[in-house]
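Friendly challenge for the regulars: who can give me the structure tokens for this chain first? No prize, just bragging rights.
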Amino acid sequence: IIPWVEIQENLTRKIKKVPLSFVSYAQKISNCCYPCHFLSSSSGMAAHTVFDEAVKRGALEIIERDAILIHWFNKIKPKRIILGHTLDYTETLSTNLEKLGYELILADLTLDTMPVVIAMAVKKDGEFPFFAGAASYERKIDAIKKAEEELEFTVSQRMKHRNKLRQKIKDTSLKEIREPTDHEALYLKPEMFKHLKFLFEGPVHRVSENELYDKTDLYSVLGAGGFKLYHLDMTAREVRQLELGIKVVRAIIPGFVPITFGYGQEPLGMRRIYETPVKIGLRNKKITETEIINNYLPHFFP
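First reply, four minutes later:
Bragging rights claimed.
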């Protein structure tokens, strides 16, 4: 038995049905345990007091994860972002990271839709050599700040629980990767650091003020690219009963590469992995699935 749920296209409001396990971790419904046909993740999940804003934020997370995985499997060196003028938050974060022995590096993962930025804390010697945060937003400056905030939180938490992290790194092995924190721990091993270097050794790109503040409309970009955005209201009954005004949604953009966790679990059949880099000039020819498999390593993003 496969339970199905209805999702709605954002512009036309047309309804389609997808298997429940495509959009939800929950496999127990009406006291029945159903089989899982998809590897569930939280990609595309968002909450907000405004329903449309929740859908938008969910869609932006999908775009962020898609960009990370496409860069990872194609080993594309993203452009390093050099800011044309000082941003207070960036300067403060950079100073704080330097005190811990890290260099703050920003890189542009933007593909064919919205701005995507990855913020990295890199330490070329010593333990815990790499942490990252990423974000997609309508303005590049907002993507930078959100990625930096995510990075700052990650570093703060890892330093707070460093003994636990040391044990996690020790216990993690390549083919035993199962959950998000395993992916991070794997690349904190000294011998794995070399596999991350392409992420922060790309060509330098000085970002102008106009580029920072230019706004890209999500719906216009998706429409122009022929992409459809669907959503599903997943607000829990308990949340509705509290009348908090919070909406929880799942956004879905068919064809975009979802993030998955576990060794060998990435969806290598997704066409965007092969076609998008060539389409936008990041590669001269398509990478092949055989090339990816022969050089396979699980992604680094927790």
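The longest helix spans residues 51-74. The chain has one domain: 41-294. Your move, everyone else.
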